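re: ur question from earlier - yeah i can do the single chain one, its not a big deal. heres the input i used so u can compare w yours
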Amino acid sequence: MIFYVQDEEGKLLITNGMHECEQCVCENLVMEYAKINCPCKGEERRLGSRTLKGIRFLLCCGLKDAKTTKSFKNKLEILSYSIPAILTIKDEVKNIAQNEEHEKYSKIVHNLKTLNAQSLLSQYKFISQESFSNNYGNLFEVVLHEVKNRPKDAAVAILKQAKNNEHMKTEFSTHEKLSVENPYLFMQFHIIRKVILNVYHSFDDDFREKKVIFKISESDKRAKFDYETIRVAIYHIFSNAIKYIANNSTLHVHIKENEDYIEVDFCMRSFFIYPDEIETIFADHVSGKVAQNKKLSGNGLGMGLIKRALSINGCKICIIPGEKKIINNTEFGDNIFRFMFPVR
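and the output i got, formated as tokens:
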């Protein structure tokens, strides 16, 4: 049984047949119903059409499926009443997809506006907007003077700017490669330690504020992956660490190789992970119990993005939770977040 559904202008809305069959049906349907010898199937078939609320329904089926004109009319009637519901669902799904895409776009715009505002605030905290306006003729000298007299503030401003730039770059990469099906991946060999350090530098000031010492083992291990997507994964592991790592602790990154994988362990004393959270931790909009209790849950997207970024590169993530420790009335654990790069 082959059907075609057309709108008032004859535009095809939905079908389960071929274009050639649609032409055949339309050409042979002078009246509402007809019989033809089908050139494609080599058999006698019934044709029929019915218009309902401006939508035209065309049906073609063999005599085995519709032995009488009455049974054929029944099939056509059923088709004409069932397809509009399908078209409605199709439109609803399309609208949902468009709304989701709009939501993603709105979120990116919001995040970029926020980051831009933070960059400007950092800049004007170092040198006020008024100073820029009042010294428009010799801005270079004004900035140079401030840098010489306030080197520490200048360093903080530069690092904050670097972090915001890294965040903006991550937003673009996430939208471009992790929010679409079959993204283009530029697979090359990279030194893993170098890529980690390329991302880390923008978080250095945040870790210093929490008095967290960062250590990374010496390694020249290389893995083949798409730089941009793996950078997103590393960015979010550091972003999560800033929120959930204990003050006055150490973030140690170990890089080692076994028979199947190059393993990168991000070892930190961070919020305790309950056993039932291991399965849900990668779901979107899900945060851990300790984070929720401390009202530090964020948007719950970081771990999901990490897993997706690693997965499309053929990599894995494994979480090894540590035993519970109570520090300043907060539950912590010596947790390991392991990135696993296949040995190629």
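The mean pLDDT is 82. not sure if urs matches, ping me
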